[in-house]
Amino acid sequence: MSLLDTDRIREDFPVLDRNVASGQPLAYLDNAASTQRPRAVIDAMDDCYRRYYSNVHRGIHTLSEESTRAYEMARKTTASFINAPATCEVIFAAGTTAAINTVARSWGDTHVGPDDVILVLISEHHANIVPWHQLAARTGCRVEFVPMDENFEISDAVVAEYLDRFQPKMFAFAAASNTLGSEYPVQRWTSMAHDYGATVLIDAAQAAPHQQIDVQAWDADFIVFSGHKVCGPTGIGVLYGKQELLEEIPAFLGGGGMILNVTTDGFTSQELPEKFEAGTPPIVEAIGLAAALKYLSAIGMDRIHAHECVLGQRVDAGLRAIDGVRVIGPTADKKAGINSFLIDGVHAHDVSQFLDGYGVAVRAGHHCTMPLHEAMGVTATTRASCYLYNTPAEVDRLLEAVTDVRSKFAKSGRRRRSRRSAE
Ligand code: PMP
């Protein structure tokens, strides 16, 4: 596996040059929460605002036509990024959360009844749990969780067992876990779920930044991801659905833009994709997203994935070698750039705060995976997540800082213990 030319890539990301409050240069290892934006994205959005911004679809004037063209071109770019057979299968949503909520409403309310089961993994982000709990409250269906084993892994056999036991109406799972870093076999599990007649939703929030998404190969019914995790803007995400399914289910949000006709008695919906895009859409964000997808594609998703694997393995091996540090996740060969960990005797929030003092940005907490943390018997972890612009030197700064934090706390813990024993 080879590393990317990070010197070259880092020139594209203005923010990576800065120092943090402690005066240390920034080592940004919080990419699973949100990535940074290259100039190509900033410039594309800036250009739209400066030269041709207007509302789309409704105006018959130059600016509106130019904005509409750019917005629809962004949809085409997105469709081609995920290899969607039809451009109208790409719906722009506010993000992964909004997209899953749309499916839980539009598909869930029309396909799920009191005897049905929605199956998810124990490692799911709250965005892929709460909308199903809400669906359960509306319909009386149940949400069931596929557990993981003591190595933080979920085997095909366990997935098959749960599909067989619950015969779920929906199997909704993340292609990659935002806490464990695990990458799951999307194609295989989708095919297994289809054999049981389940509809499949893939939360690709942590996969889209790092892997080539091929919706035709994956064959899932719905696939969702967020713009801000693929170097794009906030406020935009993608809901991909198979055309037949999107045509069959009703719209969730109602309002302008999604209707063909409105009378005092009711309304008829627009065709795809407008049917699912009520109100003024995220126009400039879509243009920014397309610029981000083009940027990543030009580097190559396979090369990005390989780069992150090298860095992720360096983090994993380095953390495991520090006495008193525990990696929370599978072995390095089963994940890419995300590593969550615990330092004995130090709360995850304190770890994160200390690391900030070294210029290292990581995340601490439950990472919106409370059921997973409960299953692991911990309340919070610290997470370091790498992306295409990170370097081995930054990983080493993380490891040195963790070693320092560990030894400082181990000493003060010993001092506290010896004071206590003297009392
Ligand atoms: N699913 C996963 C796996 C995630 O990592 C995230 C973001 N942390 C989400 C869903 C939610 O994404 P967003 O906040 O962009 O809607």
Helices and strands in order:
Layout: H1 6-10, E1 27-28, H2 39-52, H3 62-81, E2 90-93, H4 96-106, H5 108-111, E3 117-121, H6 130-139, E4 142-146, H7 156-166, E5 170-174, H8 186-195, E6 199-203, H9 215-218, E7 222-226, E8 237-241, H10 243-248, E9 259-262, E10 267-269, H11 283-299, H12 301-320, E11 325-328, E12 338-343, H13 348-357, E13 360-361, E14 363-365, H14 370-376, E15 381-385, H15 392-422
Parallel strand pairs: 1-13, 3-4, 3-5, 5-6, 6-7
Antiparallel strand pairs: 2-8, 7-8, 9-10, 11-12, 12-15, 14-15
Helix pairs in contact: 2-11, 3-11, 4-6, 7-8, 12-15
Bound molecules: 4'-deoxy-4'-aminopyridoxal-5'-phosphate (PMP).
4'-deoxy-4'-aminopyridoxal-5'-phosphate (PMP) binds next to helix 4.
**What low-confidence regions span 5 or more consecutive residues with pLDDT below 50?**
416-423
In the residues, how many domains can be counted? 2
C-alpha Rg (nearest Å): 23 Å
Number of strands: 15
| Portion in beta strands | 5-15%
**What compounds are bound to the protein?**
4'-deoxy-4'-aminopyridoxal-5'-phosphate
The H-and-E topology, N to C, reads as: HEHHEHHEHEHEHEHEEHEEHHEEHEEHEH
Structural class: alpha/beta
Outline: globular
